[in-house]
Amino acid sequence: MNIGKIQESVLRRSVFRQLKTKREEVLFGAGSGEDCAILTFPPGQELLVSAAAAVKTEQDAALYGIHAAVNNIAACGGKPAAVWLTVLLPPSAEETELRGLMEQAEQICAGLNIQIAGGHTEVTSAVNRRVLSVTAAGSVPPGRALSASGLHAGTQLVLTKWAGLEGTAIAAREKRQELLSRFPAYLVEEAENFSGFLSVLPESEAAGDCAVCAMTDLSEGGVFGALWEMAEASGVGLEIDLKKIPIRQETVEICNFLDLNPYELLSGGSLLIGADDGYALAERLQKAGIPAAVIGRAVPGNDRVVRNGEEKRFLGPARTDEIYKIF
Known about the structure:
Residues 33-140 form the PurM-like N-terminal domain. Residues 153-303 form the PurM-like C-terminal domain. It comes from Candidatus Eisenbergiella stercorigallinarum. The chain is an alpha+beta fold. The protein has helices at residues 8-14, 61-75, 95-112, 165-174, 176-180, 185-192, 201-207, 222-234, 249-258, 278-287, and strands at 4-5, 26-28, 38-39, 46-54, 79-89, 115-123, 131-140, 156-160, 212-217, 237-241, 271-275, 292-299, 304-308, 311-314. The chain is 31% helix and 26% strand. Strands 9-11-8-12-10-13-14 form a 7-stranded mixed β-sheet, with helices on both faces. A 5-stranded mixed β-sheet has the order 1-6-5-7-4, covered by helices on one side. It has a two-stranded antiparallel ribbon with strand order 2-3. A hairpin with a 2-residue loop joins strand 13 and strand 14. It is globular. The mean pLDDT is 93.
């Protein structure tokens, strides 16, 4: 395609025609020549805004980018309503690529009941492959927004789903042929299907008002990264039991084969929650069909310790995510 703004005809048939999901909060959204969307929320609701970029996997950029931005809203205890997509394409891109991206984006948003309210699409020589940036907006009742900084000594920590969830799905797709040389097809396919668990909206809603004091969605840096960041933001120490961190066998096998640390691996789709009664919260989540486990607690001081039987390690700031080893 030609460098510059996408032609009007291309926008109409490959972008606007794909947008079908509508939300009542979006009074005015994406359209030809329209540069702004108009949103309205119930009186008193607080606005939440988040952004994310999908740069790790081009094939499923919409899948990972939209979930990342929307999960940030959910981790604040909010309900997402709309997203804006900025798409940068290299001159070598074909219109079919743009249409496929928008079809995937609309499918994901329809499943989450979120409207694509606008964005920007451009062909530029500044990129050599497709780049997607996502901005999400939602709302939360006044005074109900949560952050990662709400832990206090004694708070129990609950982890939903499994460590390394998102990274396992990406690794299974990117290294499929290598993995098939070692593992049966059903294991690799099951790992790829982890991409169906990327949303944390269900656990955010199920957590409700169950004495939750802090939440964060896991992303780069994995479980260890999220634990350290939450403790650092709250000014507390941690006592974590490694054996209680839930992890799927597919993740263990794939990480061993590819020499990845699953606890420092991209873990989108999991939520780390601080609660006064973590066991009650975990039981509530499990009754809602969401895997969850209490993995430790916040303690006074600054030591963030992960114990594995008699062994222990001290957590530090998140390092480069393990997922980059496979690219």
